[in-house]
Amino acid sequence: MDKIIIGGGRRLRGEVRVSGAKNAALPVMAAALLGDGPTRIRNIPRVSDIGTMADILAALGARVDFPSAHEVVIDPRGLSTPTAPYELVRKMRASVCVLGPLLGAIGEARIPLPGGCAIGPRPVDLHIRGMRRLGASLRLSHGMIVARGGRMRGGEVYLGGRFGSSVLATANVMMAAARARGMTRIEGAACEPEIMDLAEALGRMGARIRGAGSHTIVVEGVRRLRGADHAVIPDRIEAGTCMIAAAVTGGEVMILGARPDHLRAVIEALEEAGAAVAVRRGGVAVRGGGRRRVVDVATHPYPGFPTDLQAQMTALMTVSPGISVITEKVFPDRFLHVPELNRMGARIAIEGSSAIVRGVRALSGAPVMASDLRASAALVLAGLVARGETVIDRVYHLDRGYEDIEGKLRALGADIERTAGRKA
Ligand code: EPZ
């Protein structure tokens, strides 16, 4: 298995360009199943989750080609089976977003239950509720969601849950509703930029969707959708990770492609933490190096502080003087990075769904284990600022969602390299 080795202590300087958003690209790829011809998606990040989604779509019978590194063309005309293979779905929980497109396209879907993952339980009740409200019958059988809908019909759907709305359930309902008979009204819809991007892609395919980006989305079903050409938005989580990297190393980095309108809560938090953030043409510049300050952060659905940057923000707080409280309101158990950060000398205690972080003068490099995508990113940030060498094992977690992270950080002056190990 590959490892990443980081020599800590270098200030990052220069420019970095963010890749396309993985979490926007995945549902748009699934949406391509709804078209009656090929869809071209540009600005696709080169990360392994995209490869997994491509394999799932191919297993369903679609033709998937990558004409260039950041472009995929999906031709759904060979769609021949409603069954997504377990070996692929278990690798990536986001696979559940083929449920809506399969029901919309062929009125049938069989998807293994994605189950839990490193960040805690991952229920699918909101997806199921949404599909039922559109007239599908769903049951769980032998670990599989078995769904039948024929031609779905529009309906009123409420998608609020205990921890807010669900991003992928909103995506699923929007996709199924796009080709349903009649009007669908989604209340309690997720407002994430990735949902707006999906609505835009579906719009290019001929769907009639209003209100994406608000809590109420109205979809007027149409009989057919066409293939389309769409470029996905830049990755706000990668951008935020780079912003925190600049702050934690006391460096100065221009993050090209970062959309300040997608990063308001992150910009606020970083400014409070002592970084200088400037919105420039083409991106966002972050300068660390001043006095670091602690800040309390609670994650929330968009436009709140994203859960996908919680671990990275925690890494910054480990070296800020004082005590900060980081609270998870989206995935209350998402703290797998904490024991690893503590191995590097951080002082973090978990209290329920909060991490209480007591800032230390310095972290010390150590061998650590990546556990999930964003936890791994937090370990990279900690390694950048720690004294000595940090060796991160199980790097495949990072590769699921960060394109060439070591190349990008090295170009900013980090001492970071990857060693290829034996295959797992
Ligand atoms: C998306 O997952 C992202 N994944 C996640 O990013 C992200 O952390 C999450 O949204 C929250 O922003 C993709 O877009 C591919 P949710 P999703 O359904 O849609 C509960 C990353 O690191 N819930 O919005 O699956 C759930 O347990 C990943 O890139 C239900 O209760 O997340 C959570 O508490 C990790 N019932 C909350 O809702 C359901 O049926 C929000 O989850 C579904 C979810």
Describe the 3D structure.
The protein has 424 residues and is α+β, with helices and mostly antiparallel strands. The protein has two domains: 2-19 and 234-420, UDP-n-acetylglucosamine1-carboxyvinyl-transferase, Chain, CATH 3.65.10.10; 22-231, Enolpyruvate transferase domain (UDP-n-acetylglucosamine1-carboxyvinyl-transferase, Chain, Alpha-beta prism), CATH 3.65.10. The protein is built from 14 helices and 25 strands. It has helices at residues 22-31, 48-59, 86-89, 99-106, 125-133, 167-178, 193-204, 236-249, 264-272, 310-318, 337-343, 373-385, 396-399, 405-411; strands spanning 3-7, 13-17, 39-42, 63-68, 71-75, 108-112, 137-141, 144-148, 156-158, 160-161, 164-165, 183-187, 208-210, 216-220, 229-231, 252-256, 276-280, 283-287, 297-298, 323-327, 347-351, 354-358, 367-369, 389-393, 415-419. The strands form seven sheets. Strands 23-24-1-25 form a four-stranded mixed beta sheet. Strands 2-16-18-17 form a four-stranded mixed beta sheet. The protein has a four-stranded mixed beta sheet with strand order 4-5-3-15, with helices on one face. Helix 1 packs parallel to helix 7 (193-204) and helix 10 runs parallel beside helix 12 (373-385). The protein is globular and about 60 Å long. The chain starts with a strand and ends in a 5-residue tail after the last strand. The relative contact order is 0.16. The model has no long low-confidence stretch (mean pLDDT 96). Ligand EPZ is lined by residues 23, 26, 94, 122-127, 161-164, 166-169, 190, 194, 307-308, 330-331, 373-374, 401.
